[in-house]
Design brief:
Elements (H helix, E strand, L loop, with lengths): L9 E6 L8 H13 L3 E6 L12 E2 L3 H8 L6 H15 L3 E5 L5 E5 L5 E3 L12 H14 L4 H15 L10 H9 L2
Parallel strand pairs: 1-2, 2-3, 3-4
Antiparallel strand pairs: 4-5, 5-6
């Protein structure tokens, strides 16, 4: 991240909790460098350490990861609100996006009521990569100027495509446009 300023608009930090982002100082340095350059930071993490990515723009756990990090079972909408608000506050992120499988995506923003975005109907063959697809589409859409609700809508469409295939797959522009036009 030295040299030319602002050669990119967003960075996705994908933390599978395998050790690369283990050192908090390292993570803090990355986020500091990106923030100074006005780069939006999108984090997909399995870590129980909510504060590790403090200052990220968007952070995206799935429902189980949210339960584990918040230290509580999510059985009701009220539970989801408590866990989501706790996670958002501790993470210091601008927004929290929780992927909830067939229940869609929930958006938490400071001082706002949770917004839910239903999943797009799809024949589910393999959920591999659905979360990666969501965070990638969010980064792309937000970087192109879309607001979070529209970015989440696109991410839901993209995820509905990848779960309709077997294995680790992509969502092409043509597939995304066709899927949007189906509705």
């Amino acid at each position: 991240i030295t040299g030319k300023a602002n050669v990119f608009d967003a960075v996705v930090l994908s933390d599978y909790n395998k050790g690369f982002f283990f050192d908090k100082t390292f993570v803090k340095q990355i986020i500091s460098l990106l923030t100074k350059r006005n780069v939006k930071i999108f984090v997909d993490t399995k870590s129980l350490d909510i504060e590790k990515f403090k200052g990220a723009t968007f952070i995206k756990p799935n429902n189980l990861e949210l339960e584990n990090a918040a230290g509580m079972k999510i059985s009701t909408d009220a539970d989801l609100d408590v866990a989501g608000k706790k996670y958002l506050e501790k993470s210091g992120a601008e927004a929290l996006i929780v992927t909830r499988g067939p229940k869609g995506i929930s958006l938490f923003e400071e001082g706002r009521v949770r917004k839910d975005f239903p999943a797009k109907e799809a024949d589910v063959y393999d959920v591999t990569g659905a979360g990666d697809t969501v965070i990638s589409m969010m980064a792309l859409a937000i970087s192109c100027g879309l607001e979070a609700p529209k970015a989440i809508a696109l991410a839901n469409y993209a995820a509905s495509i990848v779960i309709s295939k077997i294995g680790t797959v992509t969502c092409t522009r043509e597939e995304l446009l066709a899927r949007i036009n189906e509705e």
